[in-house]
Amino acid sequence: MAGTGVIEDYVTGLSRTLRGPRRPKLDMITEARDSLLDTAEALEGDGLGRDEAERVAVEEFGPIREIAPGYQEELSNSAGRRLAVLLFVTVPLTAIMWNVLWKVYPAAPAAYESMPTWFVMVARGVDMLQMFIGAVGGIALFALGRGLRRIRRPRLVTRALGVFVWAMLPVMLVSCGALMVGSQNSTGFGDYLPGTVASMVSYAIWLLQLYCASRCLSVTRREPVPAVA
User: Which of 80, 95, 135, 147 is placed for a possible disulfide with 143 were both Cys, Cβ 3.0 to 4.6 Å?
Assistant: First the structure.
């Protein structure tokens, strides 16, 4: 049975209050609606009219200002976990992809000889930085998973992870830009199709990381509304 009165007004207000990933938020709102409808139907079975049953169900569920902080905290955790998984999985894989690419590049020996002396050092630095970023993602994933029991303010973990990704952006842009300039003199690399594909994949991953980092900053922009005792 679909709610059309007090329950729908309440659920709409709750949805407008919350910020976070679309799917987890939708699941939360659906669960809240289903719970309210079940309560209202039970109250109807006890003899209340539909409108009164919905009103009582909403009162028992609690004011939005009381339940919203808990919902918002979980949405913040969800956004942080998404970004953490993305970093933990894609960043090391990107580093491995580029290492394999250079090893199988047909003109690799001649290409290395034509590169600047600093190229290999910068490339290794980028690899280490990527592994570090992936490790940070793994730590954040643990903190926002099993570590939630010991963390008093997981919202700060999510926000710190978003800030970290944006802080790493200029470092990665400068480093990878230097590698691109250094590889221009390598024999035939500019026309190497796997290299072009790898670059497109790397850019897509970067954009996805920045999008998720922006979501983390958005959902943690303000402290959750304090619950009323």
Answer: 147
